[in-house]
């Protein structure tokens, strides 16, 4: 080796590190002391112990890693005790230790982190997964494994994927269990799911203690069970559950990664344990396949062959993270020295005051380079057995991911993956990292699962608890409209339309629903259904059925089924019959329509007379004769019986357009008059909700109905105008009395009630349009799975026609029929025909202007020479001459002017101007 490269090697391995333009020097010690606190006999601890020892050997055997410095690892057994873990930590820190790998337990990590903070000794835990350890309270705690926050996010995604809404959490009641379940609750809340029952267990629970807990779980409603315990406790839980018959069809068991750890470490498991865990789903921390990992797996058997205490055991993911943790610390120590770090300790004056005693607390000192070593740890980037290792800004490992595993037979089957990047997928996460993140629900995928009971059908996820408890169902105790709901006197039973729909839907469910109907109301007034729904939220009732309208403020309190009847608000008012009379023929048109039609008749007749009287002898004669002819012609066109012929093209054009207008008017008049004379007409001063709002008359509504709040809050009607009514008799009396006698102008209620009311009260009718659109449904607590199943049953009733049959049975009445009676027909308005009248008027105006232009042209040509020769050129004389010219017929004009050649030439010129007129002014004259 050349002297230059020797110098470079010595330069770096003696603590020199090039960073930008500056270098720092640090003398490396021969040995760096680190400690470890684990439970030697635990499933995780026994694997981690072997893995860390192998990692220490690998680090120390490679002089390049630490430049000749060796790591000295001191391992102490906490023996499942938080107290012993503290003692172990104190013992380790007495020996100038720069870092501690561990502790294994989250509970112990909480305790020791306070000591680490004080002495500035970093803690690197490969197995403490409690999410709260990531808080700012523990700056010297570094997690070198996956956080349970992400594991609970994976479980929440699985719950949402299978459309479950409620789960039961079974967990160890310590920092590890409580924090994990708290994270699960938060993750489920983002999916609109929840934990319906929590079953905590003592960390040292006996079999009888577990039995007591599981009996309560068996009585709960949900069948989605999440088990978050330690490996030994989890095996005991499923054993007790199997004994209680809770591992059969209909149950879903999701275990956190404790089960995959047991399967990886202690396989093959006893046959009894294998039988207990059939169909379970568990998670395993995902570590991508690599050559380094495969080499270590092949080496693992040799590492465990010489162990006599525990015998051979498998390698779990915690072992991989434990191995990588040693390498993380080794790389950080190397960077620490390269940045000029020195291993030195200083005494704390407060600890020095504790000199004496067996604990030797005064021997502990503060690691001066603790902060620098911590920063070096968080900046480490390497590729280990668990994959790429790097830390985020919140001290978490990057790219958290899990395998989703289904236990089948004597082995396991991977059904998919979960990653924080893309959610559930059947593709390994590292392939998805190459694509943009896509977390839509349609993109979530898992392979099929064999569930407990050896079934492939996804369990519904809940049942009615087998504890003898019945659903308390509130029913409004009505005092009117008892066809919908009525309590059978002297019994607890109810009858009516709503009750029969409920029982018919319940019979379609694939399971039995024990329930008890409980009346709600004082039996004097109709109760408020809004208050009934509110009592579901307080736990007084488990559900509510009846004539409960689905409106906005109620949907905020409960979940409703599919509506089983539509029933919006309508207005009902008193109506009177519109009898025919001597002048009934005038009713189809308004007076404006009659007036405009008459004016048009006369106007068209006048225009036709102007266009025809000079060339058509039928429109000439004495003034009296011409007036009568024009009037006769005008009115006779209404019946197409006019005898006068039109000769001029302009007159024919006006007449054709007018006859088309007459055709339309006559057809509508005939149809309207037929309806008036043949169909019974009803009229009411109230035209709908708009006229009610505009008036100051009192308005009736049904006591307990949401109509009161709607009228006052939404429509702004003052409450003083609203009159509560309880029965159909009160409806009828209030409407008959009217506002002047202390009654009401109209009643606003739901259509279902009003249709039943009108079946026996024909003197009233619905006026206007329905102005809300809602329906009736059954109310259940929020996120109740029974609401979904009942909605499906109601849809089946509708599809089979059973819902209509029940409706006809209870609500069809024939005592009174309003068939053939309509509210007063709207009279035909002028605006309906304004377009036709405008067209006709424009046609008349156009014809008149063209005719006038032709007259002026002819007058100018025929009389220009005669006027010049006579010398009469005054304006008034010329106008009198023109009027005389207009009043004379074409024949007379020809007699006066003669048949000279010049006049004929003038006539020919005017004829050419008229654009190919088919009839000239001279037509019809006798020469």
TrEMBL record:
One Pfam family this sequence matches: Lig_chan
Keyword hit for Membrane: yes
Protein known as: Glutamate receptor
Membrane topology note: Multi-pass membrane protein
GO MF, one example: ligand-gated monoatomic ion channel activity
Highest taxon of the lineage: Eukaryota
Transmembrane segments: 591-611, 836-856
Family statement: Belongs to the glutamate-gated ion channel (TC 1.A.10.1) family.
Keywords: Disulfide bond, Glycoprotein, Ion channel, Ion transport, Ligand-gated ion channel, Membrane, Receptor, Signal, Transmembrane, Transmembrane helix, Transport
UniProt domain Ionotropic glutamate receptor C-terminal: residue ranges: 472-813
UniProt key word Membrane: yes
